[in-house]
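Please fill in the sequence for the structure shown.

STRUCTURE ENCODING:
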């Protein structure tokens, strides 16, 4: 009796274990069901790692600091990637986000991994800021991107056309290996509209994101302050964690100051976002740039009107004037005006919320996301690496 062939090994290289459980877990489970042996490497975080191991996946700690610029730290990360590839011997590596794509992609190419998938999930603060340091780091990482994405048997997933065109314009990737998959999809049975708020309830305007300047939190605060001073009947709520690794992170004493001023409530990080979102009547996240924000997809799936900035990633989720409003980036007064229109018109909120829900059903289901990702796996596994 001939021995059974070993299942193909799939390795996810991630910048956060939590991000894996919130954004890639359905893909990993579907891949496992399709016959892959799934391995996950990310910085250790107890709660999400317990979820990962509970799914039957092998987990490996990855010494990755998203905001770190220590030369020794980066050498350590590179060495760890080499060791993981050598030990696991994956047939397919899926790199997600900037550092995994660059460091993992470099190692996967040098070590001749059979097949590689890169996910460009957004370009981050380095591609938003225009100061000298950001420009210098961009100039350094461009050739690294070019080498990492040049694997002879790879696919590169983009979430919005602006990011794709930027990579093509800088000759960082060949067009024939690119794939467009809009967002990471959500479960429409879990993220669904809740009971309609009564006219007696005070509307909640919610900012569901990390408390970062680049997520538009200062514009949200400007809107909350100006509308509150104008007598608006609303509660303004921040739902998200801080992120000290990001240079636009907002210090806790500043957030607590906003609370003492009576501008906002800070609910912190929540894992039960379907229930949290159903408490809101309006979602506002005027981010400066995104890949394609899951938080806005979740809000649309819950049938909520959205106010966001007219920037890459965000504009893919909102139909201006139909499911919400797209406002100019970094424009607090315009953000306030858009929120004010929705606060003043219950029927408009309901109509836009219905349109947002239908848009989510049409374009952002988790089933479509998983199917398109597995098709990408099939295509690259059939290639000649």
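FILLED IN BY: designer on duty
SEQUENCE:
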């Amino acid at each position: 009796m001939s021995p059974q062939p070993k299942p193909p090994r799939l390795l996810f290289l991630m910048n956060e274990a939590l991000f894996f459980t919130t954004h890639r877990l359905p893909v990993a489970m579907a891949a496992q069901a399709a016959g892959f042996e799934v391995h996950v490497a990310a910085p250790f975080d107890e709660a999400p790692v317990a979820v990962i191991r509970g799914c039957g996946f092998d987990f490996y700690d990855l010494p990755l600091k998203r905001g770190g610029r220590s030369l020794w730290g980066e050498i350590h990360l590179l060495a760890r990637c080499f060791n993981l590839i050598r030990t696991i011997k994956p047939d397919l590596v899926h790199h997600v986000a900037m550092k995994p794509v660059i460091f993992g992609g470099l190692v996967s190419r040098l070590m001749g991994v059979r097949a590689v998938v890169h996910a460009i999930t957004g370009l981050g603060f380095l591609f938003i800021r225009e100061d000298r340091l950001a420009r210098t780091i961009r100039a350094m990482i461009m050739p690294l991107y070019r080498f990492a994405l040049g694997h002879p048997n790879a696919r590169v997933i983009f979430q919005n056309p602006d990011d794709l065109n930027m990579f093509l314009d800088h000759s960082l990737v060949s067009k024939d290996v690119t794939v467009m998959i809009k967002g990471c999809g959500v479960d429409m049975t879990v993220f669904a509209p809740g009971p309609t708020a009564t006219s007696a309830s005070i509307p909640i305007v919610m900012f569901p994101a990390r408390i970062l300047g680049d997520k538009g939190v200062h514009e949200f605060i400007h809107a909350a302050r100006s509308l509150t001073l104008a007598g608006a009947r609303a509660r303004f709520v921040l739902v998200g964690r801080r992120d000290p690794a990001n240079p636009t992170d907002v210090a806790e004493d500043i957030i607590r100051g906003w609370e003492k001023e009576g501008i906002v409530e800070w609910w912190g990080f929540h894992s039960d976002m379907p229930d949290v979102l159903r408490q809101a009547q309006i979602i506002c996240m005027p981010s400066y740039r995104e890949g394609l924000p899951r938080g806005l997809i979740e809000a649309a799936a819950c049938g909520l009107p959205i106010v966001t900035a007219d920037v890459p990633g965000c504009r893919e989720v909102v139909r201006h004037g139909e499911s919400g409003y797209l406002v100019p980036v970094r424009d607090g007064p315009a953000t306030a005006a858009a929120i004010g229109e929705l606060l003043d018109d219950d029927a408009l909120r309901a109509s836009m919320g219905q349109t947002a829900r239908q848009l989510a059903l049409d374009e952002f289901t988790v089933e479509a996301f998983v199917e398109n990702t597995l098709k990408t796996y099939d295509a690259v596994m059939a290639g000649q690496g």
